[in-house]
Design a protein that fits this description.
By secondary structure, the protein is mainly α. The protein has two domains: 7-136, no CATH class; 137-279, no CATH class. The chain contains eleven helices and no strands. It has helices at residues 14-34, 40-60, 80-103, 109-132, 140-163, 165-170, 174-194, 203-213, 218-221, 224-243, 250-276. Helix 8 (203-213) crosses helix 10. The relative contact order is 0.15.
Length: 279
């Protein structure tokens, strides 16, 4: 019987888990007190931190063992890694709010968060690839998955803009983020399933691709395409649906956009890093 949750979920030891929850509560309390502007630029600003989370989680899953100290290693396992990245991102955001306020540039805080996040993500990725270089890198299929996601996302965004022009215009920045994040998750998962024979941990994607594998077309086009189609369709529906709330409840709508993008981009980056490392 298929379960809803993916296999391999690992929770930190109770003291560590409690400390993580307390840290997250403190971050939420600070942000609630500071009341920063939460708009589409904030969604963009936190996007590179999702990449950081994907890399950190990939390092936790290395077959030879993660590079993290045993006491805190499970903070980077699923599902705790989402909360860990939230705490780190929130702490950086709070610090940037104070700095921007002192400098009189509060409106630029989301961009500062973006720049710092890009710097951290690039540094972490370069360090990871350099550290793994002696074992050899396998960049071809990850590069193909990225190229396919970019091309497909562009087409899907264009078609969505034609069919739901008002919604795309209202959510002009977050719509392409949602579409690309989940398209990339779809293409990397498809490559893993069809080409690299990676076992899919999440039951719903596995069920979708196993069903497609039973079709006569599987011999010619594989089965991963089915998951890509589902991911793209769901991403478009959610992106368009949430756009209706951007005017009436922008804070909640943009926070939901953050969650949606993270659930696509985080797993996609995790897949890419593991594939590049030949795992």
């Amino acid at each position: 019987m298929y379960l809803v949750l993916p296999s391999g979920l690992t929770l930190p030891d109770p003291p560590v888990a409690i400390a993580l929850v307390v840290a997250a509560a403190v971050v939420v309390a600070f942000l609630a007190a500071l009341e920063p502007r939460i708009d589409q630029w904030v969604v963009l600003g936190v996007t590179p931190w999702m990449v950081v989370g994907g890399i950190l989680h990939a390092l936790w899953g290395l077959p030879e063992g993660s590079p993290y100290p045993p006491l805190v290693a499970d903070l980077f396992a699923a599902p705790a890694v989402y909360l860990t990245v939230f705490v780190v991102t929130g702490a950086v955001w709070i610090g940037l709010i104070f700095l921007a306020t002192a400098a009189g540039t509060e409106d630029s805080t989301p961009m500062y968060l973006l720049y710092v996040g890009v710097g951290v993500a690039v540094t972490l990725l370069v360090a990871t690839l350099y550290w793994a270089r002696p074992a050899g890198l396998e960049p071809i299929w990850p590069a193909i998955a990225i190229a396919a996601a970019i091309a497909l996302s562009a087409v899907v965004w264009f078609v969505t803009a034609l069919r739901a022009t008002e919604a795309v215009s209202r959510a002009w920045l977050v719509t392409p983020l949602v579409i690309f994040a989940h398209t990339l998750d779809g293409t990397t998962t498809a490559v893993g399933y069809d080409v690299l024979t990676v076992t899919e941990r999440s039951p719903i994607p596995r069920l979708i691709m196993d069903s497609a594998a039973a079709l006569p077309t599987a011999e010619y086009i594989g089965a991963g395409w089915a998951f890509v189609v589902v991911k793209v369709a769901v991403a478009v529906v959610i992106a368009v649906y949430l756009s209706d709330f951007l005017d009436d409840d922008p804070v909640r709508a943009n926070l939901l956009y953050v969650v949606v993008v993270a659930l696509g981009l985080g797993p996609a980056v995790n897949n890419l890093v593991l594939f590049v490392l030949g795992i």
